[in-house]
Backbone:
């Protein structure tokens, strides 16, 4: 495994409380479990994506031709690497590493634009090279939890460039503020979305991308036949209904309260990086790798930060959970950081 291939699930082990994976706890909800179980009865036939594609398109005010259904959001990055031949691909980091891993595996040269901690890891669109014909960034960004203003991200779009915005965590933000999913006026914009985080469907592998129909068709040409399963298509239809979107919006509001509870419980000596707006926070503390192991010894799994370009061994990513869990975590973290008693 390369450093780019390290993800939060690698931190898990039996007996550990999961603060390493950013999937909402208690999901899928019962009504979605019923949808998935019922979809198994339809799985003898081949998947028909038309209704799911239409549902996603309607949810975002798009034409169905603008929608690419994928086996998880990560598949979209592999399809990009197969379909495009960028002269200069720029990845805005620190960010999710799967796009870079896919581009490198396909033999494409990759450049980094490292956002600066002194700027709160916020995007400066003027820092992106003018000659970049492929730009990839996350919003909100994993692992910093920073939400970039939509105008700053939109400013990166231009003719002759594909702008990929990973919005896997967009529905964790109340009102999906700063999302570009409904924008059809920006040339070359491809927005990648996922059902994984809010609905707890990481194992189902279900996501989608929204972009200009010719780009969507070019990506689809590199998919195998029937790439998205019947249960995944049922989940797409169910999770894009008005009722489901209301539930997701309420979950995002609750998440904001839970995130504030986590931050307020953290002990002195632990710095919260940037201005977190998603379902996780990035922490900076001295000796974070040692602390991570000590947390494991006390029953906690957190995500190491040093495998993200632009971060260091002194970074840890921690998922937001309910306040009771966060307070218990913070208490153990405080005990680990407490000075040893003088004998």
Residues:
């Amino acid at each position: 495994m390369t450093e780019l291939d390290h993800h939060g699930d690698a931190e898990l082990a039996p007996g550990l409380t999961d603060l390493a994976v950013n999937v909402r706890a208690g999901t899928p909800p019962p009504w979605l479990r019923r949808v998935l179980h019922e979809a198994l009865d339809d799985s003898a036939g081949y998947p028909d994506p038309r209704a799911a594609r239409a549902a996603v398109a309607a949810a975002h005010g798009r034409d169905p031709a603008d929608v690419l259904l994928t086996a998880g959001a990560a598949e979209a990055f592999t399809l990009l690497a197969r379909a495009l031949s960028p002269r200069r691909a720029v990845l805005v980091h620190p960010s999710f590493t799967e796009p870079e891993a896919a581009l490198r595996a396909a033999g494409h040269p990759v450049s980094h634009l490292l956002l600066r901690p002194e700027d709160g890891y916020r995007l400066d669109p003027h820092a992106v090279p003018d000659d970049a014909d492929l730009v990839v960034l996350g919003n909100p960004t994993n692992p910093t939890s920073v939400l970039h203003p939509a105008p700053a991200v939109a400013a990166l779009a231009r003719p002759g460039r594909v702008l990929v915005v990973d919005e896997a965590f967009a529905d964790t933000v109340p009102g999906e503020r700063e999302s570009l999913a409904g924008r059809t006026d920006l040339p070359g914009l491809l927005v990648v979305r996922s059902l994984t985080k809010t609905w707890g469907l990481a194992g189902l592998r279900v996501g989608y991308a929204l972009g200009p129909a010719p780009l969507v068709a070019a990506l689809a040409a590199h998919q195998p036949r029937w790439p998205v399963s019947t249960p995944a298509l049922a989940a797409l239809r169910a999770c894009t209904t008005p009722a489901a979107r209301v539930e997701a919006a309420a979950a995002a509001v609750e998440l904001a309260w839970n995130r504030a509870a986590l931050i307020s419980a953290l002990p002195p000596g632990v710095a919260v990086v940037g201005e977190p707006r998603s379902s996780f926070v990035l922490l900076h503390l001295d000796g974070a790798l040692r602390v991570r192991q000590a947390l494991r010894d006390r029953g906690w799994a957190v995500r190491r930060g040093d495998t993200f370009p632009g971060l260091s061994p002194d970074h840890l990513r921690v998922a937001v959970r309910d306040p009771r869990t966060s307070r218990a975590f913070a208490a153990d973290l405080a005990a680990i950081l407490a000075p040893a008693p003088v004998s």
The chain has eleven helices and 13 strands. The chain has two domains: 3-26+244-336, 30-241.
